[in-house]
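tool_call: predict_structure(chain=1)
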Amino acid sequence: MALKFKQVDVFTATPFKGNPVAVIFGADGLDTAQMQRIAHWTNLSETTFLLKPTQSGATHRVRIFTPAQELAFAGHPTLGTAHAAIEGGVVTPSAGKLVQECQMGLVGLTVEGEGTERTITLDLPKTKTRVLNDAETTEMEAVLGAPVERSTPPRVIDVGPKWITAQMKDAAAVRALRPDLVRMPAFEKKVGGTGVVVFGRHAKGGPAAVEVRAFAPSDGIAEDPVCGSGNGCVAVFIRDSGLVDAIGRNYAASQGFCVGRDGRISVDIAADGAVKLGGHCVTVVDGSIAA
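tool_result:
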């Protein structure tokens, strides 16, 4: 059985930058084992499967897989799947809006522009947060091989994926990081996370307000090139740690420099605390897959 397939680079308008996601169309006939096998084969940070929606109000449904497991929600796959679905004629935005159904529930999407100028923004689902204690923070620093900012203590932020989120001294410290990826999975499990995301501020006039890196070796992803859910958790961290005045409610994040991807994420933190994030997408592969 051949199914329509696209591979989309997310958080970039330039092919072979940003973060790729594989999108499989018309996947209603596939079972979970088949989906996981395909995701393991693509070996991308995420592969998604487009399905007919089951909830009222949804324009489309998606299941999201890493090479190792299914996720309830993820950011760059949400945006890349919406881009592919629009381009493939599966969905048409109504007044610039789409609604994705996933395991986390319904996720609102805003679509602006057309073609190469199109941007897609998602409404981050509600999160749950736990602040790490001193011992856990010390262990995190040992895994990272570098100190984190303790005045804004690290926290586990659950947005489907559970990102262990920490602020570092600055963007240079983030880019210089060489974490112990062998030791990291045990630390993730111990504190109840599924990955580690760090950020640091760029100097004024830099490429963005903050630099972000995300690591999820327990999911088979040594470093996620440009991570939507991770950037969402960074925004929640900024909101909840009193950093909004310093960084801004509307800011740009850069991620992927260290793996040659150089993506850009636009982030908005509303006055009521709601977080939106988005960017450009570009299709780099368009064809079919033997599913």
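agent: The chain has a mean pLDDT of 97. Proceeding to next step.
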